[in-house]
Amino acid sequence: MSVRTSIRSMAVHTTALRSATLCATRAYTCTYTRPTVIPPIAHSRLVQVRAKTTSPNGPNKWAKNPVINYDELKPITEQPNDDILLIDVREPDEVALGSIPSAVNLPLSVLKESLSEQYSTGDFQRKFAFPKPAYNQNIIFFCRSGKRSATAAEQAAERGYPNIRNYTGSWLDWQKKEQARDGGDD
User: Which residues form the Rhodanese domain (predicted)?
Assistant: First the structure.
């Protein structure tokens, strides 16, 4: 195999990967085309490439700023919408003590498995009582202090979710700011 043939083959691989596009979106389900698998070139290194998703209007601003603070989060909780999913990654016994309004619970202990492609949307809905997040959905993770939510954000990114943010102050910051706000109104 000549160098020129090898370069052409690599170009075919690259073109196939770039052609992975979003085909259909419905509610919380996304279907992606998969590029045809082409046998590796002899004597070449195996390179793992992940196709990146972008919105039709360019990169999502969520991907540009991975951290969110109380002042940005507060209005989101006051007017929740389907475009933003607020996920509490604490265990259910911790959530029972209080949570941020409009949040859903998906414990970190099961997050990685639950967001995998092998976990069906039906099973996810039955287990967690909310739809499995779409790959292009804006997601905010929080926990008690921000450490587990940072791990959750990393795990979600590894699973192909590009539009994620971490509320680094998490529940402790939320509680403190809400108490100060309520105390100031008296």
Answer: 80-183
**pLDDT tens digits, one per residue of 41-92:** 333 332 222 333 344 444 567 678 899 999 999 999 999 999 999 999 999 9
DSSP run (H or E) holding 2: none
Structure-block tokens of residue 122: 């039906």
Joined tokens for residue 144: 């008690």
Q: Is 143 marked active-site? A: yes
pTM above 0.70, yes or no: no
Q: Is the pLDDT of residue 106 over 90?
A: yes
What is the tally of structural domains in the chain? 2
DSSP 100: -
The structure tokens listed for 105 are 């619970």
Tell me the Ramachandran region of residue 139: left when phi exceeds 0, alpha when psi lies from -120 to 50, beta otherwise.
beta
Catalytic residue among 143, 150, 156, 164: 143
C-alpha span between 70 and 159 (Å, rounded) = 26
Domain ranges, residue 23: 1-51
Sign of the C-alpha dihedral computed for residues 46, 47, 50 and 52 taken in this order: negative
